[in-house]
Amino acid sequence: MGIQENLKRPSKKRDELIATDLLITAKSAVRAYSVAVTETASPEVRKVLVKQLNQAIENHAEIADYMIKNDMYMAYDIEKQLQYDKEKNKKAKEYVKK
Predict the structure, then answer these.
(1) What are the angstrom distances between the C-alpha of 54 and each of 33, 47, 49?
(2) What is the DSSP annotation of the chain?
(3) What is the pLDDT of residues 52-89, one digit of tens each?
């Protein structure tokens, strides 16, 4: 079964892939808003950007909490997370070979 077929079927792997993508996007949003806040001279624009930054931080926290609760992200155990990432990397390489 190919990658596309795997993504169409409901599974923890698919959920983890989607959650990971959301987490990466949320982190990028936090960084982008942080930079934008420091680059604006307008108090009105800064206020809007800070509001958006706070929402992006909340989104990130919700996604990270979901992943932690569902054993997709081991934020409190770096060794366990590294081992988990190595296993995922190995599996991904196996998919590419198929």
Answers:
(1) 9, 11, 9
(2) --HHHHHHS--HHHHHHHHHHHHHHHHHHHHHHHHHHHH---HHHHHHHHHHHHHHHHHHHHHHHHHHHTTS--TT-HHHHHHHHHHHHHHHHHHHH-
(3) 999 999 999 999 999 999 999 998 889 998 998 898 88
Task: State the Cα angle at 30 between 27 and 32, rounded to 5°.
Answer: 110
Q: How far is CA 39 from CA 20, 25, 42, 52, 64, in A?
A: 29, 21, 9, 15, 28
Residues 75 and 16: their CA atoms lie apart, in Å, by 15
CB 4 within 8 A of CB 48: no
